Amino acid sequence: MLEFLSCARLLDPGVVHWPLYINETSEHGVAVWVIASDCDDETEYHVDYAEQVRYETNVLFPPIYGATLHVSPLRSSSSSSSSKSGATCTDEELVEEGQRETGVLEGGSLYVNVKGLDHYEKYGHKTRKRSTRLTTDELEELSQTEPGWERVPYVYRRGIVCDGELPHFGGRVRSLPTSLSSVKDAKVSVKRVIVGFNLFPSEIGACVAKFPEHSGAFNRYVKLSQAAVKRTKALSTAGNKGGWTLASVRANPKQAAFLKLLARRVRETEKQKSEAVTPTVTASCPSSCELRNESEEVEEDVER
Asked: Which stretches of sequence are listed as region Disordered (predicted)?
């Protein structure tokens, strides 16, 4: 059975104010992903948020809670959690007798700043608000003296739960064992694997569920959005003469495919909207019909 521990147990709850209360009527669901890290992999300073919502609204909407679960049979070479209160908790205190044998890794700890969004406002995404961006190695060193930082090292079967608004980063994985005695297949490379969880509220849960972070649907949406923004910027520059024309689209297969995709998306969206209302409303809504017809005409022109 997995041993899932909150940070309230790992660290001094009198100092680390990471609330563990959930309003049962507010949560919608949990987004889940996996990170498998090799040597020198790291996760830069950031705050978790609903990425699809940001792409659509340019608003950062953090989860209610964030959590990580350490699933590789590994333990950090420095396994004591650090707290400014002086409280520590070693891996021996968390491991049951007879647990699976674990290998040793160096680095890869989780660093969380309990000052929350105030700290994030000062540093920005990936520390971009600083005059000089900081590497994760530099942040690790800074965390030893700057108030608010808590470090939780990697330990097999350890779970961490914290407030969704807390900025954090994953330290660089400096070394991994070449093999593990508990893994029989020698061809399997050793990685530091983390399962991540974000609990989102009902206000945005449906949007997150439709485009889960890092899923194929989400990645396609991001690429489409980035391409649209890039093209829009190009059309607004003084050097662009005339932008897209029917002739230029026909002469450029990539432009044609992109425009056909946009037209198809518009048509599908309008079809879904029309199916969601009564026939009388659909018949009395010429704007939807006009938009659908325009998208069909665009696609037909491109194909010709």
From this structure: 76-101, 270-304
Residue 172 is assigned to a structural domain of this protein: yes
Residue 219's pLDDT is: 84
Asked if residue 225 and residue 178 are part of one domain, the reply reads: no
Q: In the chain, which residue ranges form alpha helices assigned H by DSSP?
A: 7-10, 51-57, 91-94, 117-123, 136-143, 202-210, 216-236, 246-251, 253-275, 279-283, 286-303
Residue 84 within a domain:
yes
Is residue 91 one of the residues assigned to a domain? yes
User: What is the bridge-based pairing of β-strands 173-175 and 103-107?
Assistant: antiparallel
Q: How far is CA 146 from CA 11, 112, 269, in A?
A: 17, 12, 50
For residues 187 and 279, state if they share a domain: no
Q: Which long-range contacts (CB under 8 A, 24 or more apart) does 124-128 make?
A: 125/45, 125/46, 125/47, 126/44, 126/45, 126/46, 127/44, 127/45
Q: What is the chain's mean pLDDT, rounded?
A: 75
pLDDT in tens, 157-207: 999 999 999 999 999 999 999 888 766 666 678 999 999 999 998 888 888
Read off the pLDDT of residues 93-119 as tens digits, 9 standing for 90 and up. Answer: 444 445 677 889 999 999 999 999 999
* One domain, residues 197 and 281: no
| Cβ pair 8, 20 in contact under 8 A | yes
For the chain, what is the domain count?
Answer: 2
* Domain of 281, in residue numbers: 219-303
Give residue 220's pLDDT band: very low, low, confident or very high (50, 70, 90).
confident
- Those residues with Cβ within 8 angstroms of residue 207's Cβ, 6 or more apart along the chain or in another chain: 50, 52, 53, 56
Residue closest to 15 by CA, chosen among 80, 87, 65: 87
**Which residues are registered as beta bridge partners of 75?**
104, 155
Same-domain status, 194 and 237: no
Q: Do 115 and 264 sit in the same domain of this protein?
A: no
